[in-house]
Amino acid sequence: MTGPVYDAGALIGAESNDREVWKLHKAALARGVTPVVPATVLAQVVRGATTNANLRRLLKGCRVEPLDEADAEAVGVLLAAAGTSDIIDAHAVVRVLATGAAVLSGDRPDLERLAAGVNRTIHIIDV
Fold first, then answer.
1. pLDDT on residue 50
2. DSSP secondary structure code for residue 49 in this structure
3. Nearest-10 Cα torsion for 80, 85, 87, 90
4. Which domains does the chain have, with CATH numbers?
5. For a surface tag, which of 26, 48, 67, 117 has the fewest beta carbons within 10 Å of its beta carbon?
6. Has this prediction a pTM greater than 0.85?
C-alpha cells in the first residue's frame, strides 16, 4: 500500500532528527504503508558522504520512485499549467496526484500552486 509522498522538507527533517517527521514516518510504517520518495527529491537532498545516517535509515522504509517517461511528461504538463519551473516540486505533486496520498513538505505555497494549475487540491502535511 502506498503511503505519503516525502518532499525535501521531510527528508531534511529526518536527517536533522525532527521528531514530528519521525513520528509520521513510524505511523505510516505501523499502518503497513510504504512512503514514497520521488528520485528527484532525493537528488535535491543527498550530498554524498556527508549525508546523515538518519536519512539513510528513513530511506530503508521508503520506495524511491524514478522519474520515468510517463512522470517526466506529467511533470512537464504540470509545470506548463502552473507557469513554474521547479521539476522537483512538480515530481512530488505528480506522485501525490497519481496516488491520492498526502505529501510531507515544507513548501506548501509552491505545491499548492502546482496542483491548482491543473485544478486539483492536494493534502499537504507541513513539516
1. 65
2. G
3. -50
4. 2-126 (3.40.50.1010)
5. 48
6. yes
Q: Starting from the edge strand earliest in sequence, which strands make up the sheet with 103-105, in order?
A: 63-65, 34-38, 2-6, 103-105, 124-126
Beta strands in 1-127 (DSSP E): 2-6, 34-38, 63-65, 103-105, 124-126
Residue showing cell 498526502? 102
Strand, helix or coil at 21? Answer: helix
Listed residue (2, 10, 3) closest to 108, CA to CA: 10
Backbone angles phi, psi at 86, to 5 degrees: -85, 100
pLDDT at 111 over 90: yes
- Digit-coded pLDDT (tens) for 48-94: 766 688 999 999 999 999 999 999 999 999 999 999 999 999 999 99
Closest to 64 measured CA to CA, from 103, 34, 86: 34
| C-alpha span between 16 and 89 (Å, rounded) | 21
